[in-house]
Amino acid sequence: MRIAVIGLGKIGLPLAAQFASRGHDVVGLDVDRRVVDHVNTGTEPFPGEAGLGEALATLVPQGRLRASTDYADGVPGADAIVLVVPLFVDDEARPDFRWLDAATDELARHLTPGTLVSYETTLPVGTTRERWKPMLEKGSGLLEGVDFHLVFSPERVLTGRVFADLRKYPKLVGALRTEGAERARAFYESVLEFDQRPDLARPNGVWDLGSAEAGEFAKLAETTYRDVNIGLANQFARFAAANGIDVHQVIEASNSQPYSHIHRPGIAVGGHCIPVYPRLYLWNDPDASVVRAARQANADMPAYTVGVLAGAHGDLTGARVVVLGAAYRGGVKETAFSGVFPTVHALRAAGAVPLVHDPLYTDDELRSLGLEPYRTGQPVDAAVLQADHAEYAGLGPADLPGVRTIVDGRRMLDAENWAGVQLRVVGAP
Fold it and tell me: Is 202 exposed, middle or buried (0-12, 13-18, 19+ CB in 10 A)?
């Protein structure tokens, strides 16, 4: 098949490589010339995605995968087009469709009959039918269900392990029509491979959910569940710490019973997905009080953690406090909605001098994010562990000279390494 992937970000580019690895001819389209040039030289434009560099180095020279900024170079005559363009949402749960609208308008201008169009960007329920269908029909002069087929099929992968997740999880498809669902099933079965999953009620593979709305809702439901669960865990953590209880022992005990699946509490919920998609759900369901309360509970955790630090350390005015980790999670060079930003803000509000360390970022990169870089070995008064980078597990007082107090927001530091230092863990007394 001829396939176009629109949006060569941290999800779209691995998807394009996956499709090409199955023997198809793939054109990746992106507005960023730097990304396009990287792809066309067979090099990855961003680090950290397992297997991507090797895939590009093989597929690009073979002619299976190339990139372009010109929709006319990839859309006309394509058998299938997959869009993975960012959708942003503000704190008031208002989605910003500008990037997706622009991509859809340009796609419509070049769309030709016989094409399957699949949106993989997470969307509010109803967007595929009520927004993309009329935009595509108006811009192309073609009829959905007659000249082309439109489906929603949410990406369900984590950056850093996209290829493994594509095999592990069922590919959900929601179409506007039965024929579109069948086209989507045939397409995804030809570009993906699936692991055996005896734990699932039905075989792993492409799952047709019956409508685009059900597909949209499924992605919002699975991500919103995680945010709500973490919000509950964080409320448990705050109660436990106030009452001399280690919440981590409580959660381990509770989860030994098969109907309990309490997640881990922590300093922050970051990334492109979990802090964002509950807001898209709230756009559809503004009366979802449980979802709103959980989102607020999680958003409050960085300030709460700084409060724990102040309670243990004393007045933070003038104190040099290093935040360990700029990334939103360990091992991933990404700061989208990272807890580092509200933590630094809360430290400044407390009168502290916040510094930031991250093994994945250079000093200049940290400064470009508005953060003051810190290097281990420099004097510091206190520390807050924000990202669970593996490198932090072996830290000791010699790495943070003068440190008197640490709050571990991810429960990864070994207390035996910190003799003479006050070590507090979120959710523990």
Answer: exposed
* Whether the Cβ atoms of residue 373 and residue 355 lie closer than 8 Å to each other: yes
DSSP state of 132: I
HEC profile for 195-235? CCCCCCCCCCCEEECCCHHHHHHHHHHHHHHHHHHHHHHHH
Q: Residue 408 in 3-state DSSP?
A: strand
Catalytic, 171? Answer: no
Q: How far apart are CA 323 and CA 17, in angstroms?
A: 36
Amino acid at 344: V
- Written as one string, the DSSP assignment of 125-163 is TTHIIIIIHHHHHHHH---BTTTEEEEE------TT-HH
- The one catalytic residue in 10, 133, 171, 273 is 273
Residue type, 39: V
Q: Is the dihedral of CA 287, 291, 293, 296 positive or negative?
A: negative
- Local structure of 323: helix, strand or coil: strand
Tokens representing 163 are 């290829």
The CA dihedral of 410, 413, 419, 424, to the nearest 10 degrees, is 10
- Percent share of the chain, pLDDT over 90: 97
Per-residue pLDDT tens digits for 189-222: 999 999 999 999 999 999 999 999 999 999 999 9
* Distance, first Cα to last Cα, the chain: 59
Q: Determine contact, residues 87/121, Cβ cutoff 8 Å.
A: yes
CB of 226 closer than 8 Å to CB of 53 = no
Decide if 273 is catalytic: yes
pTM score of the predicted model = 0.92
